[in-house]
């Protein structure tokens, strides 16, 4: 393909949930810079518009769509904004807490599961027709999971269950997409990215724990890994560890999911 014909080809399209802040915003910025048309989903319109405006100010294409990922009708609107062909879905919307079962109430338990797991299901299901329709190379579904997806901390009986289920969702989906591809369908890669503590607004609603930003990942470092798996979908945690953006970061397979190379953990070295 010549340079001029590639410049004229339609931009790849990405939908990013939780794109108004933190990891989702960092991913949206990176994809915007890479020439993707980025559809940003979340519940707070002001945050989404701000990130979309930043992307456009740098010459990128971005659209903000106010959408709650736990509501099918909102998710449909989000996917409609992407149009008939989609290349990347990043599900970063989420919420967390550090609570024992004695401290955790039903509403917090249900909402945490709903945004992580029902949100993963609804967004992927609604995205599938457009993900399958695009002919612009391989498609991608990225689930922003957590070290809590595989870990067992006594204050994560709610969050850990939610993020564990979100990761299992990614693994089952990946198996289906392999079947689909071997039957002639589009290759769609699925990754579960499992960060340790990241310095983001996530912690503003978790008064039970104070984070030290010096001992955290930065949102853009998680976005770096996500951009990396889009570029190198078959690369392993070991490959990314060799490219990590600063020495204090650890990139590795995530126990007990080590046998799946599409599950990659990233954390500050101080994370237990
Ligand atoms: N920060 C960490 O230490 C850490 C570590 C491991 C994994 N993670 C995971 O990383 C992901 C991103 O978190 P973050 O650290 O970037 O925190 P964040 O800045 O709080 O981002 C989470 C985003 O999700 C959106 N959101 C929450 N509920 C939603 C819903 N029902 N529908 C649509 N959007 C919703 C929030 O925006 P609105 O409130 O405006 O909707 C927010 O922009 C989460 O899945 C989290 O579990 C975070």
Question: Roughly what is the average pLDDT, rounded to an integer?
Answer: 95
Share of helix among residues?
40-55%
The coarse silhouette is globular
Contiguous runs where pLDDT drops below 50 for at least 5 residues: 1-7
Q: What is the count of DSSP helices, taking H or I runs of 4+ residues?
A: 8
Number of strands: 10
Following the backbone from N to C, one meets helices and strands in this order, namely HEHEHEHEHEHEEEHHEE
Domains (count): 1
What small-molecule ligands were found?
A: NADP nicotinamide-adenine-dinucleotide phosphate
Indicate the radius of gyration in whole angstroms. 18 Å
**Superfamily at the CATH H level?**
NAD(P)-binding Rossmann-like Domain
CATH-derived topology: Rossmann fold
Describe what this molecule looks like in 3D.
With 272 residues, this protein is of the alpha/beta class. The protein has one domain (8-268): Rossmann fold. It has helices at 3-8, 22-33, 45-57, 72-82, 106-133, 159-182, 219-231, 237-241, and strands spanning 13-17, 37-42, 61-66, 88-91, 139-144, 188-195, 198-199, 217-218, 249-253, 263-268. Strands 3-2-1-4-5-6-10-9 form an eight-stranded mixed sheet, sandwiched between helices. Helix 3 (45-57) links the parallel strand 2 and strand 3. Helix 2 (22-33) runs parallel beside helix 3 and helix 2 (22-33) crosses helix 7. The chain is globular and about 50 Å long. Residues 17-18, 20-24, 42-44, 47, 68-70, 92-96, 115, 144, 146, 195, 197-198, 200-202, 219 line the site of NADP nicotinamide-adenine-dinucleotide phosphate.
């Amino acid at each position: 393909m010549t340079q001029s014909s590639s410049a004229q080809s339609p931009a790849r399209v990405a939908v990013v949930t939780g794109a108004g802040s933190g990891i989702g915003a960092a991913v949206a910025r990176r994809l915007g810079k890479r020439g993707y048309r980025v559809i940003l989903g979340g519940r707070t319109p002001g945050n989404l518009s701000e990130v979309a405006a930043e992307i456009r100010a740098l010459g990128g294409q971005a659209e903000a769509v106010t959408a709650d990922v736990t509501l099918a009708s909102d998710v449909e609107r989000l996917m409609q904004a992407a149009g008939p062909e989609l290349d990347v879905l990043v599900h970063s919307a989420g919420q967390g807490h550090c609570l024992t079962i004695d401290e955790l109430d039903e509403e917090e338990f249900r909402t945490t599961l709903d945004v992580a797991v029902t949100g993963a299901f609804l967004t992927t299901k609604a995205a599938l027709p457009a993900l399958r329709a695009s002919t612009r190379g391989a498609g991608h579904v990225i689930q922003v999971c957590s070290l809590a997806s595989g870990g067992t901390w006594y204050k994560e009986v709610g969050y850990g269950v939610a993020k564990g289920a979100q990761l299992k969702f990614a693994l089952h989906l990946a198996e289906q997409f392999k079947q689909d591809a071997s039957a002639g369908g589009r290759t769609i890669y699925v990754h579960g990215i499992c960060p340790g503590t990241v310095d983001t607004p996530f912690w503003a609603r978790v008064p039970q724990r104070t984070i030290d930003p010096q001992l955290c990942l930065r949102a853009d470092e998680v976005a770096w890994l996500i951009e990396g798996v889009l570029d190198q979908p078959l690369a392993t945690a070991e490959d990314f560890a060799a490219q990590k953006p600063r020495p204090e970061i650890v990139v590795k397979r995530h126990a007990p999911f080590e046998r799946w190379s599409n599950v990659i953990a990233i954390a500050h070295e101080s994370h237990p």
